[in-house]
User: Fold this.
Amino acid sequence: MNIKTVQLLKNELVSKKSTLLGLHLRNKAIELDVEETPKDSIDRSDIEESWFAKERLSQHWKVELHQIELALQKIEQGSFGICEDCDDEIPVKRLRVRPDAAYCLNCQETAEREIAQGQRPSPTKLSSRATQILQ
Ligand SMILES: [Zn+2]
Assistant:
């Protein structure tokens, strides 16, 4: 992948990160509003429903932020967009969906099959370093 593409993706990631952080701050403001509203003037289930919706969203943001952080780290280390298994380039299209993708599509499929068959530990439980040591 050429430097320009990496730079472009990095810019996208940085701006997405600030959007996510902005949403997060706005969400906090909404939370304060809800807390300051007198409880008896609002149907409790309404509050609970919005609280659950908000929690789901904030989980999603955390995951996305985490993916972006990982991707930015990889950009710094120069390993961004390189498959951890076969050293092939990961397609930009894939990186736009999963900026923290560790494998190219081929290796991802192999990895998923092996995880499903119990031949490879799940990457969510082990870091890639630990996975390498175990192999
Ligand atoms: Zn690969």
